[in-house]
Protein: Metal-dependent phosphohydrolase
Organism: Kitasatospora cystarginea
Amino acid sequence: MVSTEAVWVRAVRLTAAALLAAGLGELVCDGPADPVTAAAFAAVIAIGERVRITLPGDREQTPIGTAAALAYALLGPLRGLPTSHGVLQVIAVAGLGMVSGAVPPFRTPDPARVDAVARRLLTVAFAAALFQPLYESGALDRADCTGPAYGLFVSGIALLAALCDAVLAAGLHRARTGLRFAAALGDELRSLLGIGSAIVATGMLISLLAAEMGLWALPLFCTPLLLAQASFRRAAAVRATTGQTIETLARATEVAGYTPPGHARRVADTACALGRVLGLGTRDLALLEYAALMHDIGQLSLVEPVPCGATARLPQDEQQRIARLGSEVIRQTGVPRQVAQQVARLADPCRRPDGSEDPTLPLAARIIRVANAHDELVTLARQRGLPAPAGRLEALELLRLECGDRYDPRVLAVLSGLGRGDGRPRA
């Protein structure tokens, strides 16, 4: 049975391919309108694809290429003269630039990159379909859409195109990672407020100012975007360094003999799987992974290691002491403060003394506590010689006995679903 996510990816690819084929067909049959302009935009789009950047969550973005393609889709007058390239030529020129820049010669393209190119091409086609027919038919002139009104009209279409791109990207991101659509869309909308707003503004400015400046608007307004890309690359390098630091700290307890080999990584993987099902976005998942990797760092304060590192079986106050000490260590590493806050609350009960749920307890802390206890119990069961499936079932049953106080029922329900392989909570 084909999943909904696979159908979505296939639909995006096939639609983009069909539009590109139609655009290329018209280009071959009728020839390009204003070949110099078409070649200039195609070249800038191809260069933009070559200097792409990767955002958190392995989300690929091509600021310069996307801005140039959007500008071509919204291009009206050029040097005071009307243009007539139309929707299909926009698709053909943008598609040629994207494919030539994104796909290395003689190499099989990465499926994720193919999806990204298809998404960007559909976004450009959407913008062109909204703008070009109205411009070429003279409807804008008849409506006296000039001056500020024309600028607002172009801005509105650019914004709609950006929202279209966010929806397409969220669907593809969900298909690739299993993230909930609402969380994936939230990530894309937050990105739209960052680099996305710069892309939309640049594309809009190029299309508007090309009416007076001609093709000089392309290099003039793409240069600041190139500088912005350099800043994003430095930020990505900082994130990579932070990740390496956290991985190193996470192994400290294993090297010192306080936790079994691979325990921190297993807990982090389980926690991220739970977080995706529970609707956490890319940024929250990254913080969750950091906290899960370093959740045992407080054990280094113990005089004698806990057997098998199984802190989940310790008294509540001892677990809380270890969590607080680990939090203090994390605060000194330069890791985002939310990570230290999550680790500090790892051993706190889910319920208050009056039996009501504690709303201040972070979801990340609830997730890591369940993932940690589950891995510890599975490890102990393995040491007793139990087969892996039996060990997992026994661990789940033991966790359910303490559900509600120590362990969040929602997180346990999702963990049970992951154990069955469907990633959904039990009914």
Observations:
- The domain at 256-420 is CATH 1.10.3210.10 (Hypothetical protein af1432).
- The first helix runs from residue 4 to 30.
- Confidence is low (pLDDT under 50) at residues 421-427.
- The beta strands are 53-55, 59-61.
